[in-house]
Amino acid sequence: MALKDIAAEAGVSISTVSRVLNTDNSSAARPELQRKIWEIAKKQGYIPNPTARRLKTNNTIETPKAHYLNCIYGCVPQETKDDPFYIQLLESIEQEAFRHNYHVSCSYSPTNSDAFFASPLLSNVPSDLLIILGRFKPELLNQLKPTYKKIVNICLNVLDVNCDQIICSGHKMLFSSVEYLHSLNHEKIAFIGSHEQRFQGYLDAIHAFNLPDNPRYIVDDIVISMEGGYLGTLKLLERAPEITAICCANDIVAIGALRACKERNIRVPDDISIIGVDDIENVQYTNPMLTTIHVPLEEMGKMAVTILLDRINGGHSSYIKVEYPFRIIKRESCRSLHP
Q1: Is residue 114 exposed (0-12), middle (13-18) or buried (19+ Cβ within 10 Å)?
Q2: Under a CB-based contact definition with an 8 Å cutoff, are residues 216 and 243 in contact?
Q3: Contact (Cβ atoms closer than 8 angstroms) between residue 104 and residue 94
């Protein structure tokens, strides 16, 4: 059960629920409201965190010994601020951590490395367990390792780094996106995203299926966001109006692409097909509903916690990679062209 569901039933904000369940601040809410929130959480199977306050049978509050793990974003804030991908990952991590009596203490983004590593945050963290969400540069890991001894990365890219990794291959997903569109008789297939492994997967598929390798069909320098998808698609439509399909780096980019097409009176999928990546909940409410690739975020978040705890318990010492499968979710934004 997500925090937003508990908040809705309790009639309070998500931030209030988070303070009650995730901190030991006795003034987070009125005692009767705290009891109400915990009753809803327990009723719905939301397992109490031992670092948070618990109600005893005599209506007093106790604060047991805390166990922590930490999370940070590896990528820039512009790529995370409007993307439910990261929210869903964090919820999965948090719930699995609760099951094992751990508290996810913080999530932040080291956007300014000098200021971040000079701050007291790293010297005062209560845990040496860390989960990094998204791709990151190897030098970040080198800076984090003096503080965090056990690190797991959840990512759509296979990185050459010395830490455990939970992946769902972005390279393979974009290859499959092109393959699917090719099966629908599309040839002039474009790409919108950034210059990383998903882009390489697109290129490899274009070559594998002998499709036009036209630089005008590629916009690989956007910020991965709705605005980036919107602006990238406008650029693409202006310089390559003949394209019949677009592979987007993720669903947020695809949502921006849908808006750009609508503004240019280009019908999706009649005039152009669009496919995304991630299968976030939002894409079931776009018009048309977005065809995308499902990434098992809940399972990946849980596995990250499991791998951390396994390392704590001496279950493994070498760095390991766990790769999850994906599948194409066929909805309304792609259609077959007549051969």
Answers
A1: exposed
A2: no
A3: yes
The Cα–Cα gap between 91 and 87 comes to 6
CA 83 to chain centre: 7
Shortest CA distance to 232 belongs to which of 252, 202, 214? 252
The CA dihedral of 3, 169, 156, 222, to the nearest 10 degrees, is: -120
Contact by Cβ (8 Å): 37, 20: yes
Q: Residue 170 has which token pair?
A: 């972005």
Place of tokens 């901190």: 23
Q: CA 254 from chain center: how many Å?
A: 15
Q: What are 287-306's pLDDT values in tens digits?
A: 999 999 999 999 999 999 99
- For 321, phi then psi, to 5°, come to -120, 130
**Distance from the Cα of residue 319 to its chain's centroid:** 22
Give the count of beta carbons closer than 10 Å to the beta carbon of residue 89: 24
Choose among 337, 212, 331: nearest CA to 283.
331
Cα 281 vs. chain centroid, distance in angstroms?
12
**Residue 70 phi, psi (nearest 5):** -115, 155
Measured distance CA(64)–CA(249) in Å, rounded: 44
Taking the model in full, what pTM does it have? 0.78
Q: Check if the beta carbon of residue 78 is closer than 8 Å to that of residue 225.
A: yes
Low-confidence ranges of the chain (pLDDT < 70): 1-2, 23-28, 42-66, 77, 81-82, 106-126, 339
Q: Are 135 and 74 in contact (CB under 8 A)?
A: yes
